[in-house]
Amino acid sequence: MAKVTLKGVKKNYGPVKAIHGVDMEIKDGEFIVIVGPSGCGKSTLLRMIAGLEAITDGTIQIGDRVVNNIEPAERDIAMVFQNYALYPHMSVYENMSYGLRIRGRSKADIETRVQRAAEILQLQPYLQRKPRELSGGQRQRVAMGRAIVREPSVFLFDEPLSNLDAKLRVQMRLEIKRLHQQLGVTSVYVTHDQVEAMTLADRLVVMNQGRADQIGSPQDVYNHPATTYVGGFIGSPAMNFLTCRIDTGQAKLTDDVILPLPAGWSVPAGEYSLGIRPENLRIARAGETAHLQLDVDVAEELGADTLLHGKIAGEEMVVRVPSHAGFHDHSRPGLVIDIERLHLFDRESGLRVATPG
Amino acid sequence: MEKRVVFHNRFLPYLLVAPQIAITVIFFFWPASQAVVQSVLREDAFGTSSYFVGMENFAALFEDDYYLNSFKITALFSTLVTTLGLGISLVLAVTADRLIRGATIYKTLLIWPYAVAPAVAGALWGFVFLPGPGVFAWLLAQMGVDWNFHLNGGQAMFVVVVAATWKQISYNFLFFLAGLQAIPKSLIEAAAIDGAKPFRRFWTIILPMLSPTLFFLIVVNVVYAFFETFGVIHSLTRGGPAKSTEILVYKVWYDGFEAQDLGGSAAQSVILMAIVIGLTVIQFRYIERKVHY
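Output (structure tokens, whole complex):
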């Protein structure tokens, strides 16, 4: 086990800058999830840690060793690939033992390690099968078994669940979480799925166009998004952003829609972007003054909840309300905002505005 | 779901396949049946009379030392052409697969020999090895080799093997390159992380994954060496010197059209046909099961 330290890590493909300088310290035994949309550089970052991509600038340290110029094989890492990358001509046993055989381990040692990994992953009945005779979930487990038997200091996962169907994905997510609790190996996990990111991570790294916009615990990232990008990416449905003018302790959306601010916010007057999560609005009770009225275009029924899509002050807005509230297309409910859970961002930079109270 | 075209006219499908059927019948079934008929007949040199001799033509063949020798020559020739051709093109394909810059030029140049007609390829290598002015011949003479492939059987075999291999490398190269490019990159990366060095990766991952391609190419190359090298041999050595490069196909032609032994030549054709059928069966049995792992 080891910590992993990234200092000013950059990656250029010719003139194209893929990674703009990432600093990160991954603690020993920590589960880090790098999350972002495709093309944000998350896989590149992982592949640089693995040694499959050269580092343009900066240093990567695994344990106390700078690994910039060390071969992937010597970095004491194991990687699980999106397409599993199982050797199709080898049995499950051979797949799992390949790395050990290459490193010249004794037969007995290989046998114990493979059997132990197979037991953890419930793969014992399949050891003599070829990958093509396995289901997607089983292949995924073999790929993890191949990583486990080597007992590396760091596990790297490159979108390991995206080839599985939804149900299996949820199940494997749980298995990965259990596995990590059991083995406690430092893990770096790349995904574009924010639910995976939130559920698995000790801390998550939200990547945006080659930059780490925010590094923090899932609660932290959800409750205090550092940028509008992070606010919009984490949470489903995405956070609503409304342009507003703040003056004398009030946020003015339009002439008619004026919201109070949380007690103690002291921000200079000016134009801001106000972030409101769909789950932080509710239907006004009878006799209660609504903060605003939503013109619902479409009501999406999810079963437990209903998503109301509509417009406020000319801007798109989504609200999550309980299904039994009974709203439908073209209704016009009055809404109350959980004022304490408002997020304030700079209009220009999209950065979170400190709201000292 | 099976996609089937529905024809409303009952005769249209037959009409559409008719040209292909006609070509097969006229250029394959008819000559093949003629060969079978001819192989049990003996004909006089002027083609005026022929009579039935049963299996005599075949019996005569297997008592003919030249024919048995031709078998050995064909075996040696096809083994050399296949192994050399596959080995060299595999090395070239692996190299091309690694290239990042200039890969297109490299590939294009490597494909050119395939477009050269066999007789032209023969003539080309004939010049290169021509005793006296030929480039290689001159180099060999400089090194003190007594070079004349028109007189030395071993040297003649060397020249026809070089020419035949050279022509086939392009074809092999294309298949190997396609095979290499079909191997997912992540597999190689996984092996690298598992600690396998490039050489080990090649033997334990890449080559096993290329095995279907390799097997297919072995059959194709053997067939090529057996049947399609006539032009090369005819333009380079004419089967000589002293029959040292006379492969089976060349002997069929020579015995039939030069030596005028049509019955014997036809019997040889029938044996060759059996060999082709055998190779085809092997190909269908093993290659059509595309996944070998």
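The beta strands of chain B are 41-43, 50-52.
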